[in-house]
Amino acid sequence: MSLIIGTTGSSAVATFYSLQGLTNTVQIFALLLTTIAVPVDKNLSSNWRKLLFGTIPNVLALNFASTANEALLFLLLFLILAMVLLYLFRRAASNYDRYKIIEGLQQTDAPRSRGGLVAITFLLTIIYLPLSTMAVHVLVWSSDLWAIPNPYINATSFPPVVPPLGSPSEFKDPLDFCWTTTMKRNEINFAPALVVLSLIVVGSLAVWFPITLRQIIRQSVPKVDQYSELGRRRNNRELDNEYHRLLSRDRSPFAFLYNGFRRNWATYQPIALFAKLVTLLTIAVIDSDNCLFRNLSRTSIPIVRQVFLVLFTLGFFIAQCVLAPFLDPVNNASEWVSRLNYVLTAVLALIVALDVPGKSIFDTYILYLIFVLTYGFGIYFTVINASLMQHAIKRITRRIDFSIDIFSPRLDVSSNSMHSKRRIWQETITTLFLTNQDCRIPSNQPMAFAQARESEYPPYLLQFRGYPAERHVENIKACFTFQDMVNSHAISLTNGPDYEWFRYLEAEIQQHFIGPDSYWRGSKLPDGVTSPFGNAWWIPFPPTLVIRYDDGPLAVLREIADLEAYIKQNSSRRVHRKREVRMALRALHGQIVAWPYLHITPIGSYSMWDCCQRYTAEDSISFQSCVFRIHQRGHLEWEGLQLGSGFRVELNYARNVKVGGDVIGLNDEYELTPNLAQFISLNQHLIPHRLDYIQETLENYRRHHRKEGRWKLHVLSYRFLTHVFDHPKPSARVTESSIHSEQDLRVRELMADNDIVFDTAYKRWEAVSHSTVTTWWYLFWDDLWRRNSDTIRGLSLHARDFNPYYPTSIAYRPIPRPALEAFLQQRGLYSKQSAIHSGFLNKIYLRLNEIVFAGSSQAIMFHLGGHASEMAMNEIDEETVAASSTLGTGPGTDYDASTIHPRPAYRWEGMLQDKYRASGPAHRRLLSKMGAWLGLTPVWRSAPSTGLALDVRLDHGHYVALN
């Protein structure tokens, strides 16, 4: 599978869906063909027909068995494979709860095992239909398994008259061939073994696997809050955007099962598996060539079956047309074509079953056409998303891609633009850290983070090995994930006037109040929380204290006042006494404790009516001791000790005699009640040794994280992020700032030894930030180079003229249009047939005109549709009701990605392409996504405008805009 994934594309998940779609098409089509063609090994006069509609579909669909012995062999082999895969899948599924409730500073995903989980699930979906087919055919005992040739074919009477096979003492009746593998009375019949194996297959693979898959997906898929952080109810577009944001940050090992589907359709895969099963049952059960319906009409049964198949495939097709469950348009188109072929094949089979005049045309030429379309489109949609194919299509179509809405007036082109700063200054620093021999991350060093699934708290680097580049990557991840908090709150705490006081609070929390049995009662407890106790952990930057309550909800503290209150609450004598109670009970976990308990069980019987109550009595059993257990909700293991949140007490007296903590007087407030005091007193001799171990382990846990926090701060300070990385400056000031705040010699040397690099980067940034024109001009050519240099040959051929890493690049020299035309023509990049043409240059200089002459009489004005009034670009941006104009202009650009994820066109990316409409509203064209469906472009127009128009005059054969 690794070879297939490597050949077809770079994304394992995208390839998973493509290969799965091809497999579904091949297998279901082969299943439907069995309702048309005669079985592949009997009465096929044409070798080509046998090859096309028998051998090829069945080999591709893994349908090999055609006799009882072959069925037994393949059923046994596939069953062994299925049982192994189901065991591995069940083991991964059983670990899901551990993933879901994992907490603290530990890794939440398992990248090493994720590839194996993808392979296991893929193989299970591949063998699902072939193995289920064999099992169902055994259960209904289809004609392939009959021990004699099918006596119903070409029979002149019904039931058919079949001569005896031999002596009645040696052979069974000729028609007594159901659920037997031999017609001889003295030979072993393997049918019961086949039936038992088939029942196991149906129960485990055909039924249990899809149900479990659905349960895992429903538990794993991100839950979208119907309300925003401001309490406003989200509309459907906002819900979809939030869902996509959560998907992009989802680290669940099961994310590949649902992250290719739209919101509300995450469980599509198990639904598709059940659709396969229903199709199989319809074809295999409603069949006159099995032991269930062999004595019924051989003309009516096929017609009934085909009517069911037509209705089912048609409903399946309509559902795909309406719902379009995939996020990727190519996958939706592939599924649409496949389901259309299912409908056509089912209709064709119905026509053949009805024996309409001219049916020979349908089961020959029309069937050949469907065969070619099914396999042709299946292969096409599988390979079209491959990186090689996408690059080839981009070259052929002369498409130019941008990672941002480059022509939008809302794009940040100020002197402190986040885009230019990232692409020049921050990229330079990051490159130095990642390539320096002393600072870089070793190639075998995994980058694992403890991070919240829905970004409730900042990420924290795990498995830290002391390299400055590790810390730099951690800083960047925190900055990009919590940018606003880093830029305001974190700076004020780590560098403001409260710094010393904050350091005291941090040290106090890390030394005494981290781990289980931490207490926090804010102004209001979260819904569902009955006890303020939980498990707490500290994230140094941005400074954050996280508490996972024993009942599950999460609390996040960031403000100085909250941290002070947290320390005060946990230092109080009242909370300290409650903590001592919990610690004493922890020390008893897993031990046999003394606590008398009388267990009373009513015996006798009762009818449904009280008036008819029969004799009853009570059976009582007296217990003196039990096993004391504490069940945690969360998972945080340290040195063999479970430190996770949750504190559900259970006293286990016998296998079926388990009681809760209320029998010893334990309540939600953990007060030392008389019963609880008596319980602790009875078992006091068991507490000291175990309590010492717990306290020592907890101290080691806190000491480790304090030490790691100081180590990280020593290797690279958090001040570096805010004072150097986010603020371009000359090399002298960079060195000065580093010497002042950095303790690690490697970082100091890196800053001091690369003064030329920093000076060059600063001069580049300074030149680009000289004006809004130079900023936009640089962003345009930089994005053009990054996104298109691998497909536009002229760019890479003249890299010194276009690559922004060269000082000779045009990105640093805005020039007039005639000069740019000449510049491009000299390098073979400007013609009607090239990607860069006169229309493309029109967009460039329209945007430049808006930047230079905005608000003046020289600005080019536009007409929006049939409006007579003239508007500037920013006015049109506010006037239009297309998709959010911040799409493509915000901070989260992916300018270094090799491909574009399928998406609607950015606002101005689309508006400058929309056709002009003088009147009437713009309607979305029915086939507006055809290019995206066929994989020819990753961008489509979702909300077209009425188009833009300019007032121009003809001057010496050229159109000139009127002022």
Automatic annotation (TrEMBL):
The answer on whether this UniProt entry bears the keyword Transmembrane helix reads yes
This protein's superkingdom? Eukaryota
| Keyword list, A-Z | Membrane, Transmembrane, Transmembrane helix
The regions listed as transmembrane in this protein's record are: 21-40, 71-89, 117-141, 190-213, 307-327, 339-358, 365-388
- Please identify the protein, giving its name as recorded: Uncharacterized protein
